[in-house]
Give the backbone structure.
Amino acid sequence: MDLSDIKRAAEAAREFDHIVGIITFKLRLPTPFQSECAAAGQGFAGKRSAAEAVVRAQRALTELAVVGWSGAFVRDVLGAGHKYGDDEFAYEPDAVATLLDERRDIAEALWLPLLERMEARNKAQEATAKNWQRASPGTSPKPVRASSQPRA
């Protein structure tokens, strides 16, 4: 197994499908480090208000998490009356921001299942770390997170 196989397997293990309306989205949980980078990049340590930083971090994480979709049409972005409304709106990485910008309802519908899965993963990782500490008395792992930033 080479590095590209390992990377694909790690990414696939974090992927799940979520349906919003008639669109099936393929989402990939950001790694804890990607989550921290997104939060830091959105101003948790800067001059933005906490509320603004949270919204921006949610948006950044949602955009990062969308790695595919099927069932989207141009009308989902430009409205039902558009002359190309019945054309497929094919997934490509640069299209994600456009869809989320035009359809806040979709962005919000994707955020909750993403957040739930990230929280479940974080709890599982914390339980694993506690179990590891119990199984290895006299040793303590180095902290995974040195930041006090909120985890997404």
Remarks:
- The mean pLDDT is 85.
- The first helix runs from residue 3 to 13.
- The CA atoms of residues 36 and 147 lie 9 Å apart.
